[in-house]
Design goal:
This protein is α/β, with parallel strands linked by helices. About 40% of the residues lie in helices and about 15% in strands. α4 runs parallel beside α5 and α8 packs parallel to α9.
Amino acid sequence: MSVHKEVKKVTTHQLQEMKRRGEKISMLTAYDYTMAKIIDHAGIDVILVGDSASNVMAGHETTLPITLDQMIYHASSVIRAIDRALVVVDLPFGSYQGNSKEALQSAVKIMKESGAHAVKMEGGREIKDSIERILSAGIPVMGHLGLTPQSIYKFGTYTVRAKEEEEAKRLLEDAKLLEDYGCFALVLEKIPASLAEQTAKSITIPVIGIGAGGGVDGQVLVTHDMLGMTHEFSPRFLRRYLNLYESMSGAFQQYIKDVKSRDFPNDSEQY
């Protein structure tokens, strides 16, 4: 008799409990079924269907071009693979800024059409109305402060944010506001470690960092980066756990060689 072990799904509530207990939260990106299945099975807590799909999957220079429907396509693919992880989907650029009614429609569309568990939005006080409207529909929201890639043309650079006192003060205030609005968690990207730690300690919701040091409640990386599939991108915060670029190139070259030399397929590889 096989005993089917019930998989306990990760919820927004559990993430807050993890912070309370001091257990770190692990988060990675996924944009397709196959990768999401492997990541979920490995035991990750949160999967982010990031608008980084714009760069990683579509080859755009920024995250700006990706559309709501493309995000829903990626999110749907990921959701079909998931047994355990909490799946958070980025609201793409232009789908929520400056119009809370459109923001709500975008979030509802993502939730209905993909089956995702939560959405993520970049920004602080300037998107208050959008956050509150989405939350009023019962959709969990994860915030995102620090380096906000959707605002790349405003900043003009992907360098570390909030190094100056004024910006640091505003970031801390925004983090507290996001908690007050009702966000269940917050991503801090590329800010000084001391400020990130101070932020995590000053609010009760989990703070997940990328390039924000070890004093936060969890970490997120882009899966393709940490697997070493991308090799032209090497920020200080990135740890490469594999060098898949090399391994995969080697496998492809070997396949080409085997086909050309008639080594593949051999007798046992045909009918």
